[in-house]
Amino acid sequence: MLRVRDMDHLAYLRSVGITENDLQNVVVSNLETLQRLKRAFRSRYPHLMTSVLKILLDKGEEALACQMVAYYELSLDDEFIILTLSRLQLQVLQYVWVFKRNFMGQRYIYEHETDTLLLQPISPITFNQLIDLITHIHSEETSQEIQDHCISQVCDWRIDTEDNLPLAMLYHYKDAIYLEYIGKYKHFLNSELFLYSLNHGNKLFLQQAMRLGAFSKQIFKDEDVIEQTLVILNDGCRTNYLLNVLSLMDISLWKNKHLKELLGIFEGYVENSYEQNALLLSSNPLMSIALTAELLNYMATHRKRFENECKKVCSDVLDLGKMFLTKVDDERYYESLMMDKDFRGRPILKIITENYFESLLNEEDPKGDNLLVKLWHGRESSKCDGNIYGYSCLTHVMTTSGKKTSAGSTFISLISNFFEVNYEQDYTFQYRYRTRSISVYFAKEFFFALGLLILFQQVNYDYLTLFRAQPDYLTVQNATDGSNSTEIVFAIDISSYIYDFASVQFKYEEQTSDERSEMIRENREVYRQWQIYIVIMSGSLLLQLVLRGIFNVCTSYKGVQLDKWCLMDALNATLNIIAFEVVVNVPQWTLEETNAKYLLDYLMIAVLILSWLRFFIYFLLVREISKMLLTIYEMLADTLSFVFIVVCYLLIVASVFTTLYQDVNPQKFGGMAFSLKTLYDGAMGVYDYNGMKDREVQFSILQMVHIYFANILLMNFLIAILSYTYENMQQISVFKYKVNVYQYCERYLIGFNDESFSELILHPPPVSLFSLLILPLMIVKPLVKPLNKAFSYLVFWGENFVMLSIFFFYSLLLLPIVCGKIFFNLMFSGQGLFTVIFYCLVWIFSGLFFTFGLLVRDLTYLFGILAMHQGCRQAMGLPDELKEIIVDPDVKLKVYNEVRRTAIELFLELRKQALSTMGLPPPSSDHMMDPSSPQFDMDELDVLDMLDNVEEQLKGADCFMLKYTVIHDEWSKRRKKTVQKVGPVQNAEEVKVAAKKGKAGNQLTSKIATTILGMIDMPSPTASVGDQPSEHSKSKLMTEGGKVKQQIVDQLLSKSKKSKEAGDEVVDLHNPADMARLLDEFDEDDDILDLDEANQQQSRLEEKLVDEFLKKFIVNSERSTLEYIDITLMLRALPNPIVGYNLEDNELFNFKVFQDSLVAFQNLDIVNAFEYYDTKNRERTHQIKEMLQTQRAELSQVNDIMSQVKTQIQHNENAILSQLANAPPGSGPINRSGSQVFFEETSPARKLLGKRGSTMIRSNKQ
Q: Which Gene Ontology biological process is one annotated for this entry (predicted)?
């Protein structure tokens, strides 16, 4: 029997479900009673077991805790959940979910009377609640990795449950984590999840899932899904998002009613005003316009019923896009719009070039050309101002005039003309800039293409000289007596002499068959010597295809396509190898027999033509030549139909002429072939009328008719076609040239963004052959990036060797000129007569050696500049004035979401005031939209539903237009309140005072420590004091938004490490108290960061970010020229919180630019946005005029009625007065006939009527 000695202990046992009766009646006498006791502990005492479980977790006994969860009933509480999550003991939680014990509180209640367990109606803890707890417990910025690690472990549980874990992750915007486990939870990929991600704005998930084909195609055919998608698209809040989704769906399978509705939405993009225009709410209107035009073209191609409507709307949309781009003045904003990527990873520039949207890359807008030039030469090429005069003393001496100086200048200064190397400027040939310049890669590829052309041309020439018969050439000479004499000339080389082949007859040299076979065999051996060169060079061309495939497989870009240059390389290489192998391996008789050799000749001609075409295709990137080549190509394409007509015509007239004149003149018309030749010559102006005997007149008439049709009509028709094509190509050829430039640049732009496999696709053949050296080692993942970087440096210094050699020979050419120029400079240096004579004599005998020394020094300078891989300014520690300030994305996310929250709260306050002013009752759910209400939850607030309800309640109200400074000031006020609650750090002086005060300053020092802790990113909560900050922390500390410098962090870590080494108490850098104790150890001489300055700097940065963010939503207001923001439009554009993967999208908003462009487009003129309001004012003035005219007509009718009333009243008054005059004296107001007197002349009613009547008459006259 158990004896209770402590009443407190007994109270505790009662609290966990164990009564005194239970303790007194427990007797363990045998195995059966022990089993009963065990079962009782498993089911009847969940509170006690939970307490034991907490003890196990606190002691680190995770395995025992898991066993206990498996076998014992529990009563979970907040303390248990927080304990497991904070200590990252997620295996215990896994057992909780696996054994279905995920309930808060006691799930079963034991009933003593019946000895049974009663199930309580308790809802289980869902995955959504669990992830919400994880995000709140690890909510700090430094705990983001821990947070993602915890959620990933939850995904690894793989529990078969109906609870939708993917939906919970999407709710918390954990798209990246879910994509890693999308295969394990593919059974949740249904229409419900698809529609939820559409409404919730899970861009990253939908983008990757649809590109992977994760959703069933039947989902996109479901009418409910289509209708819901169109509803969301029509709302206009996620235009870019929805259009990207539609571009990955096959809309050609939709029903006509849905396509018609979609077409109506697209028409609204060009017809609706800016208040209702969905493109205004698009972060990148240019992307929306390009995708809309692409979808319209797709609809027009696959559904002919809507072809005409689609083409019309597409043309209007592209015109709107053209107007939008003309309104964009900022080059950086233009580049951001153009290089923004859709769901397929295509930049907008690629969409434009793929679909030939000429309006969006118009020649009249120079921003497109500037962007292509920037991409061509490198994004950072504008930072390079260095040139040859910065490192070449010889060039400097040759091009500058000598300086006259006073005595004291050194001899070296005089001969170098006071040259100083320029290390203050960067040079375009340095590694940082050269490896990112597409023009450099093009120059190399063009040079190697020329070399390969020369090689293939030489191989073809050897074929011509080695595999031809050895002829004798018989030249026919006329004798003086008029007879013919023959002179035999041997061994004339056709390729070496200018010869009149019109008078040459060929006669093969008499050789035996064995001699000819031996000669051909020897020539084939000579020709076979080219095999190694053909195989290597052609193999390097084919290797380009293989390397691109490897790059696409090994990287996530999958975007390096087979452009025309790569396809031409592959075709040329294949044909070269085939032709060469055929020539050296065909049977010997093939080269001896004339007809068989003709086939080989045709094959070699095809190789020769293709080699030249491969070379000429690079001229498509040279602007002027490209325009000519494209014009010629279009002319050939446009004349194909004309050629068909000409061929048909010639066949008809050839049949006629052959039928009529084949017997009369068989030399010209003896057959269809002869007739075609004769008639074609006639069309070209070579004809006569002779040789037709008695049919000469008939023939002449037919010949004239033929010449009229062929030479006059058809030829001039051809000229007209070519003229039209030429004029049309003057504009289109420029756009097609830009298309070719971008298609060529695309491969390099993709490669520049990859640090692992970029070197596989950047270099031209045959340099790409060297990538085979590193390709086998790239299967080892840790070696990929180092090998890629090493290969890049290897190629760079290989090119530098060539560059240094060229510079050396260039300088050698300058030596004689520079020697003379230096002698001339010494003569007029102004150093004194004897000094000048001495210097001149020295220069005469040793000037060449000194000049060569200057050359060597120039080479040293150039080598040193090349060794500064990241530029001279960075190597010399000079500031970069053009460097863009990088703001920490976490700071942006925090500030932008604070502004969004401020806008929502302002909207709710304005709505409340408007309802109160209008006397309307608040809705029943108003407490859910009151920020001061405890039930208010910003995360649960449906912004779109809130806005729709307000539009119904306050339709037409204009109370949500505010100056952007009002929102800015409101944010500042709320920000100050938040900072005051947290307790900001004052300044460094207070830090030192607090450190001296000891315990008295502990509170302030703890606040300082908390501030610093917020900026230190430790890898895990269990990190030791000697751990260093991560690279993320170091980069974060160097950004403009950092609150502390690396110096103070290093000092704190150093002090903590010394304390640990000295055997003192271990310091936890995640504990604000320990951090405060470290700060107390600083003396007055310690260089502590001025935290007040850091706070001010952080505040200024946030103020700047808020100002820039709010200006994106400014619209031109009708009421004033000041900058206003429509909060409803702003919130519609930001329906969901801003997260990491849509941060860049939200930075592209610019309401004012699109408003100006839309107004200008709808007014068919380039005007500012205020003309829109002028037009509206004119319409209102016209309406007011119509209202005044209507009112005037009504008043005229009233005037007529009042005149009639007045006349009638006067008539009645006259009648009454006459009756009163005739009445006897003393009679009352009623006459004798019983008639009532209306009123007397002096009665108040009479006076009032007279006044009103006269007033109305005057107003009518006015």
A: calcium ion import across plasma membrane
The one-character DSSP state at 999 is G
DSSP state of 1229: S
Task: Say how far apart CA 66 and CA 1048 lie, in whole Å.
Answer: 43
- Which of the pair, 200 or 1249, is modelled with greater confidence? 200
Alpha-carbon distance 230 to 236, whole Å? 10
Mean pLDDT, all residues of the chain? 79
Contact 611, 453 (CB under 8 A): yes
One-character DSSP codes across 747-800: HHHHHHT-SSSTHHHHSPTTGGGGGGGTTGGGGSHHHHHHHHHHHHHHHHHHHH
Q: Which of 682, 686, 678, 690 is nearest to 708 (CA)?
A: 682
pLDDT for residue 328 is more than 60: yes
Residue 1035: band (very low, low, confident or very high) from pLDDT cuts 50, 70, 90: very low
* Structure-derived torsion over alpha carbons of residues 606, 608, 614, 617, reported in degrees to the nearest 10: -90
Do β-strands 504-508 and 471-478 pair in parallel, antiparallel, or remain unpaired? Answer: antiparallel
d(CA 733, CA 728): 8
In the predicted model, is pLDDT for residue 1084 greater than 50? no
Is residue 483 pLDDT above 60, yes or no?
no
Read off the tokens for 393.
């003393």
**CA-to-CA dists, residue 42 to 23, 94, 472, 1076, angstroms:** 16, 19, 114, 47
C-alpha to C-alpha distances, 784 to 436, 553, 747, 789, nearest whole angstrom: 20, 14, 20, 9
Name the residue with tokens 């908003």.
1149
Distance, CA of 1064 to CA of 1054 (rounded, Å): 14
Task: Detail the DSSP E strand segments found in 1112-1250.
Answer: 1114-1116, 1123-1126
Q: What's the whole-number mean pLDDT along residues 109-114?
A: 59
Question: How does pLDDT run across 803-829, given as a tens digit for each residue?
Answer: 999 999 999 999 999 999 988 888 887
3-state secondary structure of 687: coil
Peptide bond into 1244 cis (omega under 30): no
pLDDT digits (tens, 9 = 90+) for 499-537: 444 444 444 455 567 777 888 888 888 899 999 999 999
Residues sharing a CB contact under 8 Å with residue 724, sequence separation 6 or more, in sequence order? 638
Give the number of other Cβ atoms within 10 Å of residue 150's Cβ.
Answer: 22
Question: What is the C-alpha separation between 1261 and 606, in angstroms, rounded?
Answer: 98
Beta-strand ranges (E) seen in 790-885 are none
Query: Buried b vs exposed e over 6-22: b needs ≥16 C-beta within 10 Å?
Result: eeeeeeebeeebbeeeb
Sheet order of strands, 471-478 included = 484-489, 471-478, 504-508
Q: What is the DSSP string of 1173-1210?
A: HHHHHHHHHHHHHHHHHHHHHHHHHHHHHHHHHHHHHH
Average pLDDT of the segment spanning 77-103: 87
| Cβ neighbours of 84 (radius 10 Å) | 23
Backbone angles phi, psi at 1125, to 5 degrees: -125, 130
pLDDT at 314 over 70: yes
DSSP secondary structure of 174-202: -HHHHHHTTTTTGGG-SHHHHHHHHHHT-
Q: Which candidate, 1225, 565, 556, 426, places its Cα nearest to that of 881? A: 426
**Could you report the per-residue pLDDT of 122-173, keeping only the tens digit for each?**
788 899 989 988 888 887 655 688 888 899 999 998 888 888 999 999 999 9
Q: What is the pLDDT of residue 112?
A: 56
Residue type, 1061: E
> How many angstroms separate the CA atoms of 22 and 1172, rounded?
86
CB 443 within 8 A of CB 890: no
More confident residue, 911 or 266: 266
* Token digits of residue 520: 């051909």
Omega before residue 786 within 30° of 0, cis: no
Following CA atoms 503, 505, 509, 514 in sequence, which dihedral angle do they give, to the nearest 10 degrees? 130
CB 130 within 8 A of CB 154: yes
